[in-house]
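go over whats below:
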Amino acid sequence: MSASHQSSTKYLIRFDDICSTMNWAVWQQIEETLDEAALKPILAVIPDSQDPCMRRWPAVKGFWDIARAWHAKGWTIALHGYQHRYVTRKAGILRINRRSEFAGLPIDEQTRKLTAACALFRSQGLEPDAWVAPAHSFDRVTVRILKDLGIRAISDGLSRLPYRCEDGMLWVPQQIWRLRRMPAGVWTVCYHHNEWSNADLEEFRRDIGIYREQITRFDEVCLAYPNRKKTAFDRLFAAALLLRIHMLSHTPNICQTWRRWLTSRQRTLRQSLP
């Protein structure tokens, strides 16, 4: 990897679904790896987790004490929705997933949820450093309320570089789900660790070792791109990446349909043989 490529390609590490009932056995090993590499990730913390899928592991005691300790280490603590419960089938601004905790809800309902989420954080001595929507789904009403509540950055979007939108919010894009060689840009890698195996942990450690020198921190990225505007290339890049995401998400269904057709065709051919 050339020196010029290394200097122009930066990565951010983000872990989603952080809550008191996450998989702490796996998380302890992840945190050790992050500390050994002196990395400062983004942690998307669910303020009041009510998602049954997030309640499969025993609750840790003193969760908010742990969260404050992460923040004291310089880690970015992001607001990950409110209760992580999907209540609409809207895809929101990014059009990645058709399920949402916020997109499509009236302004009063969104304001109630977001105000409660921020109040819970602040009651624990934590100021939300950024917004991370469950399932990447939220709308412009969400963005405007977040700004009114004092949140100034969003960790999401499919552009190659951060930009400030017309509503005054700084978007730091999140485009990939594992560390890998990428072209020039700022690339946020989103991880969901709850289902990780030992092999996943080993892959994570290996990738951190390979890309360590190119991994940066959220606050430094925000300082480097305070007022960049969204460009036509950003829109084109986002459209192409969104198409690829949807194509990949439908690949298993396409393969399954193809296998069913092939099996049916083989059966028909066998029946037609004398």
About this structure: The chain has two domains: 3-227, 231-274. Helices lie at 3-8, 24-36, 63-72, 107-123, 140-148, 198-211, 218-224, 232-272. The mean pLDDT is 89.
